């Protein structure tokens, strides 16, 4: 395949995360609103151009009070920093259909390099003749690297909220004609 433009099918895609809570469990959440600009040959991502933008106000951890707190100045401060973004700067093949994608990740006004393991899941045509491609990605980051340091010390030792945030992305992309 040649390089072509792809858009994210939001009804068949997700951006999810998990973080340790009280050092004993994980809280999971998702972002419902995001978009991407992708120019790629899905069978060889090494020359792809990939940019993501996530609307932080779309966070959903299945708890309205927690979500409101995450949107506040204690965490994302969505009034001042409404988006989280990622732009790929280097893509290397790590195996058959497997890639290491490094890029500039911006959160809370801070940009740092982050790395994701990306898998090409396959391509095909949907029942209406549209070309689709699937990708999975996983990675992690430290929230403290982005100035997200709100926490509480537990009387039993440790902290309320873990520093590492694990990210899982599932994308079904539609080829633009």
TrEMBL record:
It holds the Pfam family YceI. Belongs to the UPF0312 family. This is YceI family protein. Residues 5-174 form the Lipid/polyisoprenoid-binding YceI-like domain. SUPFAM superfamilies: YceI-like.
